[in-house]
Amino acid sequence: MAATRIADLLKSGQPGDSTTIQGWVRTKRAQKTLCFINVNDGSCMSGVQIVAESDMAGYDNVISQIATGASVEIQGTVVESPAKGQRIEVKAEQIRVFGGADESYPLQKKRHSFEFLRTLGHLRSRTNTLGAVFRVRNAAAQAVHEFFRDRGFLWVHTPILTASDCEGAGEMFTVTSLNLNQPPLTKGNGVDVEQDFFGKSAYLTVSGQLEAEIMAMAFTNVYTFGPTFRAENSNTSRHLAEFWMIEPEMAFCDLMGNADLAEDFLKYIFKAVLDACEDDMAFFNQRIDDSVLATADNIINNEFARITYTEAVELLLKTDKKFEFPVEWGIDLQSEHERYLAEDLFKKPVIVTDYPAAIKAFYMRLNDDQKTVAAMDVLAPKVGEIIGGSQREERLDILETRIDEAGLPRDAYWWYLDLRRYGTVPHAGFGLGFERLVQFMTGMGNIRDVIPFPRTPDNIEF
Ligand code: 4AD
Ligand code: MG
Prior knowledge:
It is an enzyme of class 6 (ligase). By secondary structure, the chain is α+β, with helices and mostly antiparallel strands.
């Protein structure tokens, strides 16, 4: 008989049902004649309580092998639970131990710090918090695809290896090849290297946007959802060297249409996650950040604030709050400024538009004032910038000038410029940092704890 997932059992199991479940032991409490075992297979927060009585065949032998961390299969009968907070439990008839675990198993029942758990990348997903994070992450990812599918967007796959720097910020990892079967091109340390991508320069992509623009010029509305890479040496709680980004791109769309989509999108994802992960979200509210549920409610039910960059600077200059980084028109808003606006002033997400051209990427559409561009950032309480986007420059001559001004080689962007030569159209899009979204939803303080295997300047191991 195929095993039942524990979440399904807890939802629909009825007293008297025969059941088989599989999972890992979280806790074991042995008394003289019976033993309580909590088993979890990752499908839910609570796991299920198993009760084994001493008249079960092989009781002593099996119970002696069971410890926190062991993998087990239990056949038994569903019974009503006398314990508080759980509707049912399973009375064991047969227990099979697949793999034991001894006292050296590092996740014994006590609260561990997230920092400590990061040294256990191979085991930490078996804890309550990380389990809840990765279920929420999964539900959010599913909701992303649903949202765009319902609106007729095509999901396009953009390359990870690229030749161009989308953001023009020069923060790319380069790609080298290592082929041990070919005659060596030896570097000092004896390692054989080829210096590049078959004789050409190649990088890990910082954004799928430019390729998404190509696809939007054929399919109207598209989106990407994939890993992106930044070689900035930022050791903060909001930066990863490898993160996942969702990038919609829409032809025949302007900045306000873009902002509308971003707002609808965030509302949709929050609602979908609340529906799919009720217990996990309640857990975050109780254990991680007691504003998580109120924040979700706020996102779903209130309109986001919308202000221009110039208005944002005026608001920042007006407040008595002291900032480390001084405010004046022209600065790139720092995380302290972003958080003040979203967290203290508006107490909800704020969409800031029309930033100075000088601090934004070359592809953003120049406004009539010649000073600002049709950019938008969505700032979230606690997290700061969660979305960055813009209306794109669709006018060939202006785009060429912007590329030159940014000091970028026009040649490298010939195909991007071609899109402005053949059937150009106003278009817009944005990028949502998926890990920042998961942080925002769960209240998790460190971005390293919302991706299974964080890549940061201090970690590549797991
Ligand atoms: O603002 P960014 O750099 O925008 C772009 O890459 C555009 N090409 C997107 C587009 O218009 N299609 O990055 C977008 C978002 C940020 O708002 C942030 O949420 C996230 O990506 N992000 C990071 N997340 C984690 N670690 C990092 N190092 C990040 N850098 C950006
Ligand atoms: Mg940005």
